[in-house]
Write a structure and sequence with these properties.
Length: 263
């Protein structure tokens, strides 16, 4: 059975077996592993995951036709969920953590990542996220302080996860071929996470700063705090710096000060 990829769902099916093997090798899958695959498509990666004999493999596929195909192809070897991953609540199964694979549609990849970071249950039940992004998006996630790509997505992604770039993936490894390169990133939960009560506040603070990225940070600080000098002195901030000059930890601390004021 052949499928015509749907542009509306951002479907690009991974077809290169060497790349599939490389992706699988980034996770230590064994008979005790519970694996979740987001966007399995026609099941090429799914097939290789099954060869590692995980305890359980769950696939989330939004496309109804593909869901039925996967169910028939793999029968009782996998659990198929025909839903949008953004609408699924996950809890750790018997306190066991999940290894997550995702060939994410480019148009919603950042939304899926942010959703995973904000949802405390999804975060707690994830052992490792192995996610594929448009290279430009991956570069923003990995960006260093003081670089042009550094921004809100960098700050938010680095709050809960240690992030590692594995490798870039050529358009030739997909059907149909996308116009751009992809990048595989692995996300491992940090053992110590800076305490922020509400992730929406970190989003708000970083948005205010990076919406004024060409201005000195004294401007967004005045917008956030009635008396910014208290925060400037406490955190020893150079108010003449610009948003890209502050590292993620500084944004976490600014968010903490904001939360202390509103609670």
């Amino acid at each position: 059975m052949k499928f015509k990829p749907k542009k509306s769902l951002g479907q690009n099916f991974l077809s290169d077996q060497n790349i599939i093997n490389s992706i699988i090798s980034t996770a230590n899958i064994n008979k005790e592993s519970i694996v979740l695959e987001i966007g399995p498509g026609t099941g090429n990666l799914t097939k290789s995951i099954l060869k590692k004999n995980p305890k359980k493999l769950i696939v989330v596929e939004k496309d109804k036709e593909l869901s039925n195909f996967l169910y028939e192809k793999f029968n009782n070897k996998i659990s198929v969920i025909n839903k949008d991953i953004l609408n699924i609540k996950l809890n750790s199964e018997n306190n066991e953590n999940i290894i997550v694979f995702g060939n994410l549609p480019y148009n919603i990849s950042t939304e899926i990542l942010v959703n995973w970071i904000k949802d405390k249950d999804k975060f707690k039940c994830s052992k490792k996220l192995i996610l594929m992004f448009q290279k430009e998006v991956a570069d923003r996630i990995l960006a260093k302080t003081n670089s042009k790509a550094y921004g809100r997505l960098t700050v938010f992604s680095n709050w809960k996860y240690e992030i590692k770039k594995e490798f870039d993936i050529s358009p030739n490894c997909f059907f149909p071929k996308p116009k751009i390169f992809s990048t595989l990133l692995t996300f491992t939960p940090k053992k110590k996470i800076f305490r922020i009560k509400n992730p929406e506040n970190l989003e708000k603070i970083s948005r205010i700063f990076f919406n004024q990225r060409r201005k000195m940070i004294k401007n967004p600080l005045k917008q956030i705090f009635k008396n910014p000098k208290i925060v400037i002195d406490k955190l020893e901030l150079n108010q003449n710096l610009r948003p890209q000059n502050l590292n993620p930890l500084t944004y976490f601390k600014i968010t903490e000060e904001f939360e202390n004021l509103i609670n």
